[in-house]
Design brief:
There is one protein chain. It is built from three helices and four strands. It is α+β, with helices and mostly antiparallel strands and 138 residues long. The protein has a four-stranded antiparallel β-sheet, with helices on one face. A hairpin with a 2-residue loop joins β1 and β2. The relative contact order is 0.16.
C-alpha cells in the first residue's frame, strides 16, 4: 500500500518555520504558482519533504538532474526544523541557498547541511543540485 501525502492545515504554521502555511509554502506546494526566488523555492521543497509531497519536489527539480522518482520517506521520520543560513544570487539566473534541516529517526537526531544551487528558466526557479556539508564561506 502506497503512503499517502500529508496535507497541512492551511491555517497552521508552515513546516519551514515561516508564517501560516497557506500564505507561506502552501502557495507553491499546493498550486502551480512559481516561487519568487530560490529561497522561497527551497523552503517550499523542505515543506514538501515534511508533507511527503513528492510531486512538488519533482516539478521543481531541474530536468537535467531530476531523478525518475523519489522514494517515500522512512516510516517514523520526523522533520524538526529548518534554518536558512544564506541566500545569494550567483548570476542573473542562478542562486545558492545554504540551509540546515534537522530530523529525528528511531530516536536519533540528524542534520542535513547543504548548499543548494538553483537556476531560473522561463520565469521559474528550479533546484539543480547541492553540496552536502559545504565549507564555511571564506
Amino acid at each position: 500500500m502506497a503512503a499517502q501525502a500529508k496535507h497541512a492545515d492551511p491555517a497552521s504554521r508552515c513546516p519551514c518555520g515561516g508564517s501560516v502555511y497557506d500564505r507561506c509554502c502552501g502557495r507553491y506546494v499546493d498550486t502551480a504558482l512559481p516561487a519568487p526566488d530560490a529561497e522561497a523555492l527551497m523552503r517550499s521543497r523542505y515543506s514538501a519533504f515534511v508533507l511527503d509531497r513528492r510531486e512538488h519536489l519533482l516539478a521543481t527539480w531541474h530536468p537535467s538532474t531530476r531523478p525518475a522518482a523519489i522514494e517515500a520517506p522512512e516510516p517514523g521520520l520526523r522533520w524538526l526544523g529548518l534554518e536558512v543560513r544564506r541566500h545569494r544570487l550567483t548570476g542573473p539566473d542562478a542562486a545558492e541557498v545554504e540551509f540546515v534541516a534537522r530530523s529525528k529517526m528511531a530516536g536519533r537526531a540528524h542534520r542535513l547541511h547543504e548548499r543548494s544551487r538553483f537556476v531560473l528558466e522561463d520565469g521559474r526557479w528550479f533546484y539543480l543540485d547541492g553540496e552536502l556539508d559545504p565549507p564555511s564561506p571564506g
